[in-house]
Structure prediction request, 230 residues.
Amino acid sequence: MESPIVLVTGAGGALGRAVRERLTADGVRLALLDRRVPSGDAKGADADAPWAAAVDLLDEAAVADAVARVESELGPVRAALLLAGGFGTAPAAETDLTTLRGQLDLNLATAASVVRALLPHMTKRGEGTIIGIAAGQARRGGSGAAAYAASKAALAAYLRAVDEETASHGVRTVTVFPMGTLDTPANREAMPGADPARWIDPERLADVLAFAARIGPRARLREVELHPDG
Ligand SMILES: NC(=O)c1ccc[n+]([C@@H]2O[C@H](COP(=O)([O-])OP(=O)(O)OC[C@H]3O[C@@H](n4cnc5c(N)ncnc54)[C@H](OP(=O)(O)O)[C@@H]3O)[C@@H](O)[C@H]2O)c1
Prediction:
């Protein structure tokens, strides 16, 4: 049987790298979307490289085109890992609507554009799992990160609503909440005084995402909190 296809957005980021390594080791066929094609993944440079496309996820037409190409060139997408997103801090009193909308674009719209493009394919087949990454702030708020917290909470609510709509068509959504900082090069640079041992290892988060993508039938995850171990 041919290995399943998993689409990954934000594939060029820090978590994207850990997810690519994990899923490749699992024998999964990957379709990678990011603003830039992750280095080393350009077809031509390496014939074994996964399918990859440089796409602005806020460009609905480009996303629809990329998803259609994955489905026709690779095959049916079994699961989508929507990793694209990002952090932003600003005191609430300084969070204007442009900042708020920017976070909603970054953390909600980048996922919603892909969900919209994928759903007709998945519901027609009666199979699919869509997984998004929220954040601890979506659960418990976070001083100085109101727009970020709101955008991640919006993503979780969006995915829950999609699930209500599509579960009867065989399409499930999962929201994973990293309940702490990920140990990434960017975070180490931004917080040189912090102890990364108290942060979540992206490889463990990749383990959870890989599991969430393949579990079933007759059991599924809906929301998962992943906490630092320390
Ligand atoms: N890092 C943490 O501590 C942490 C904690 C909790 C949750 N998370 C969440 O986990 C996910 C991955 O985090 P990460 O640390 O791997 O982030 P990252 O390294 O910044 O990777 C995110 C990737 O998404 C891409 N992206 C963003 N907007 C896009 C757009 N409109 N079109 C195409 N690509 C776009 C980025 O490209 P550009 O760089 O070109 O924008 C980047 O390659 C994010 O959703 C983040 O919010 C992270």
Notes: The two ends are 41 Å apart (CA to CA). The longest strand covers residues 171-178. Helices lie at 14-25, 60-73, 97-125, 136-140, 146-166, 185-190, 202-214. The CA atoms of residues 11 and 32 lie 6 Å apart.
